[in-house]
Amino acid sequence: GPNRPSRAERPPYLSIAVRQVADPLVALLVAAVVVSAAIGERLDAAIIGAVVVLNALLGFAQEAGAEREVLALREAVERRVAVVRDGQEVEVSAEDIVPGDLMVLREGDGVAADGRLVAARGLEVDESALTGESVPVAKSGDPVAAQVPFAERSSMVFAGTGITRGRARAVVTTTGDATEIGAVAALTARAKPPRTPFQRRLGELARVMVVLGVGITLFLGGAMLARGSALDEAFLVGVSVAVAAVPEGLVATLTVTLALGGRAMARRGAIVRRLRAVETLGGATVIASDKTGTLTQNRLRLAAVWALPGEVEERVLAAAVLASTAEIVDRGDGPAAVGDPVEGALLLAARDRGLDPGDLVPEGSVLAEIPFDPERRRAAVAYSDGRRMRVFAKGAPEVISNLSSASSATREALEEQAGAWAADGLRVLAIAERFLADRGLADDEALDAELRLLGLVALHDPLRPQAAGAVRHALEAGVDVRILTGDHPATADAIGRALQLPSDRVFARVSPADKLELVRRLQRSGEVVVVTGDGVNDAPALRQADVGIAMGGSGTEAAREAADIVLTDDDFSTIVAAVREGRRVGDNVRKFVAFLLSANLGEVLLFAAAVGAGLGVPLTVVQVLIINVLTDGLPAVALSRDPEATEAMARGPFRGGRLFSRRVWGGLAVIGVLVGLVGLAAFLAGRTLGDGAEQTMAFATIAAAELTLVFSVRSVRRPPWRLPRNGYLEAAVLASVALLVASIYLPALHEPLGTVSLGLVEVAIVAVLAAAPVVLVELVKAGAPLMRGGCGKSARRLGGDADGSSAQAAHTRDS
Questions:
Q1: Helices H, strands E: what count in the chain?
Q2: How far is CA 720 from CA 601, 643, 678, in A?
C-alpha cells in the first residue's frame, strides 16, 4: 500500500452521529416516544421525538464542522523525495517509497520512511515530532546495540523527521503503518479515552430518574387499579408520571450550551471537536503539557554571548557566524534561516544586532568547510582575505578549549561559564579563530588546531511569550501543571524552573508509551487530565486524556486527529482561557440541571399526591410536555448564557464525584416539594370552584412558579436583583409567559392541550400560589448569612455563584 499511516480522508460522520444518541438521557426520551406512540398519544410522541432529533442535529452540526476545520489544516501539497533506483537518482512521490529503496538525504529534506543509514557525513536530524527532543540529533552509519532507547538509535532515520545538517543515504526498512510513526498511530488507536466525569454524573442522574419514574408509576398505577380504575386509564397515568419524571428539555439544552461554549472557545482560537470536552475542561485538575512547541517555540534562539577578557561580544558573535554554513532567505513574510537550526539562530541573532553575515567576508572567499561531526564535536570554515587563511571554529567547549593555545586559567574560566549555562538547560558552543599563512594546509585535524579562544555563545528554545503567565494562572485556578517531554533532563529542568514548577512536576526523556502510562496513572488516582502536545509522540496521550489539546499550526496531523480540541494559535494561554470558559459552562450546566430537576420533581410529586389521594389526574401528558419542553426549556437555554462567575478562576476545579453535593440535592428537593404543593393547591382550588378549570390552574401555577424560580437558582446566596443582568434569560421568560398565555386563552389550543380560559379570580389564585416558592427561597437566602455567622466570609472566598455558580458554591462550602 501507499507509504502513509492510515488516516481519515473525511470526517467520521457515522461515529459522530452515534455519539449524539449514545446517552442514557436520550435513551429515556426514545423510550418515552415508543410508549407514547404505542398507546396512541401521537402528539406526545411527536413532541418528544422532535426534541431528540433537534438535540442530535445540533450536536452533529457542531462536531462535524469542527472535524472539517481540523481536516482543512492538512497540507495538500504532494511531497517528492530523492531515491536511487537502477543506479540512477530519481524523484518520486513520498507515497511511492517502498522497502529496499535507497533514500538520498540532504540538508532541509524531510525523511519519508524509516531507514538504515549506509553512508552519512555530518548528519543531524530534527526528531522533535517523534521524541520531543528540541535539539537536532547527530547520526552516523555506525551500528548500535539492538535494544538501545529510541532516542539513541543513531544509525537510523525515521519518517516524519527532518535533515538539519549534512548528507546521507539510507536503505528504507519500513513504510506506512510499519514505521515508528505508524506504531505511534497504532498506540493512539488502542488508547481509549474514559467517559468524562460529566458523562458519568449524567449517567448516574439518568439511573436515578429511571428508578424514581418506574417506582412512582408502579405505585400510582397499582393504587388506581386497587380503587377499580380501568387498566388503560392507569397506564395513561403511568405514562404521564414517567414523562413528568424525565426532563425532556435537558438533553437539548445541554447540547445547545456545549455548542455555544464551543463557539466561544473557537473565537479564542480553540476548535472543539467533541462537545463533551467543553464542560470537562472546566473540571480539569491536571494539565500534562508537552514542552517543545507547546510551552516553547520549537525554534532555537541566541540566549547569551560571553567574551573572554580583551574580546567583545560582537566579535564573538561574528566569529560564530563565520563558522557556520547556514543561509538567510526571505520567504515573503520576513527573513528565515535555511540549514542547521543552531547556525540559523546565530545568523538571525547577528542580523538583529546589525551584523549582516553577507558583509562579513567577500563572496567566493570560502576555502574549506568542515561540517560538524559527532565524533569531532566541532565545525570549522576557512576563508581567504587575499594574504592569509582565516579559520573560524565552533563546537563543544571542552573540545575547542583543548584545541586552543590558551592558558589553563583561561580554559578554566571558559569551561566554568559553559558549565553554568549547561546547568540552566542552554546549548553552549565555544568560539575560536586561527590565522594561517599556508593556504595549502587542508588536513581537517591540522586546520582547526592551535586555536585562539574568543568566547562562548548559548542558545535555547525560548518559552512562548504567554506561557509563564498562563501556567501561573492555571496554578492559581487550582489546576496542576506537569511537563512531559522527550528532551534532555537539564533542558526540561531549566524550563520547569523558568515556569516556577517544582522539579517533581517535570518528566524528561519520556517516550510515547511513558506519556500514556503517566496519564493513565493520574486518571486512576482520580485526576481529570488535560494533555497538550503537537508531535506524533504526543498522540497516544492526547487520545487517552479526559481532554486532549493539539497545536493546529505547528502540530502534526497525528496529534490533531487524536485531540478533542485543536488550537489554531498554538498558544498555551488559550488553554487557560478555554478552562475559564469551561468553568463558566460547567457552572451554568449545573444551574439549569438544578432548575429542570426541581421543576420535574414538583410535577412528579403533584401527580403522586393528587392520584394517590384519589383526586384525579392533575395534568395531561401534553401539558407536562409543554411545561418541560417549551416553558422550562427556553429559560434553561438562557441560563447557559449567564456571565462568568467573578471567582471562577480563583477557586479550585469542581471535584465532586456526583453532579451535586447532598446539601444541594436537599435544597432541590425542598424546591420540588414547594412547586408540587402549590400545584396541588391550585388543582384543589379549581375543583372547589367547580368550573372544570382545575387542570388548567395546576398547569398555569406549575409553569409560573418555575418561571419565577429560574431567577433564584442563579445564585444560592444573592437575590436576583443583586446579580448581573442576563438579557437572554429575561427574553426567554417573557417568551415562555407568552406561550403560557396562548396555551390558556387561544381557543384553537384548548382541545389539543386540554386547557380552558381562566377568569380573574382563578388568575389571582394562580399568581399568589406561583409566587409563594420564590418568596420562601429568597427569605431563606436572606436568613442564611445570619445562620452561617462567621463562616460566610470563608464561603464567599472559597466558592462563587453567578456572580457565582449556584451548585458549585454550595458544594465548595460543604467541602
A1: 30, 22
A2: 23, 13, 22
Q: What are phi and psi of 310, to 5 degrees?
A: 95, -10
Q: Which residue has the cell 576563508?
A: 383
Q: Are the C-beta atoms of residues 292 and 509 closer than 8 Å to each other? A: no
Q: What is the pLDDT of residue 410?
A: 92
Tell me which residue of 101, 170, 98, 175 sits closest to 141, measured CA to CA.
170
How confident is residue 796, by pLDDT bands cut at 50, 70 and 90?
Answer: very low
Determine contact, residues 480/583, Cβ cutoff 8 Å. Answer: no
For the chain, the straight-line distance linking the first and the last C-alpha, in angstroms and rounded, comes to 58
What's residue 814's pLDDT?
31
* pLDDT tens column, 540-559: 888 889 899 988 776 666 67
Using one digit for the tens of pLDDT, what is the confidence trace for 317-331? 999 999 988 777 775
Look up residue 345 and give its three cell numbers: 539562530
Contact 268, 582 (CB under 8 A): no
Give the number of other CB atoms < 10 A from CB of residue 304: 15
The answer to whether 786 touches 778, Cβ cutoff 8 Å, is no
Model-level pTM? 0.67
Give the position of cell 422532535. 50
Q: What is the mean pLDDT of the chain?
A: 80
Tell me the three cell numbers of residue 266.
473557537
State the alpha helices, DSSP H only, in 613-661: 621-625, 633-639
Q: Return the amino acid letter for 192.
A: K
The single residue listed with the C-alpha cell 519520556 is 510
- Which is the catalytic residue, given 101, 114, 126, 290? 290
Average pLDDT (143-151) is 80
**pLDDT over 90, % of the chain:** 22
What confidence score (pLDDT) does residue 808 get? 36
Q: CB–CB of 249/632 below 8 Å?
A: yes
- Grid look-up 499550526 returns 553
C-alpha to C-alpha distance for 743 and 215, rounded to whole angstroms: 31
Buried b (16+ CB within 10 A) or exposed e, 7-18: eeeebeeeebbe
Site of grid cell 537539564 = 490
CA separation, residue 202 to residues 242, 276, 589 (Å) = 18, 12, 11
d(CA 676, CA 705): 10
Residues listed for the chain: 815
Residue 763 grid cell: 388568575
Residue 290 annotated in active site: yes
What is the Cα–Cα distance from 536 to 710, expressed in whole angstroms?
A: 47
132 torsion bin: left (phi>0), alpha (psi -120 to 50), beta (else): left
Helix-helix angle 760-788:694-712, to 10 degrees: 30
What is the sign, positive or negative, of the torsion defined by CA atoms of 201, 203, 207, 210?
positive
Q: Are strands 102-106 and 162-174 parallel, antiparallel or unpaired?
A: antiparallel
Burial of 806 (0-12, 13-18, 19+ CB in 10 A): buried
Spatial neighbors of 748 by CB under 8 A, at least 6 apart, are none
411, pLDDT greater than 50? yes
Structure letter (DSSP) for residue 480: E
88-93 and 565-567 as β-strands: parallel, antiparallel, unpaired?
Answer: unpaired
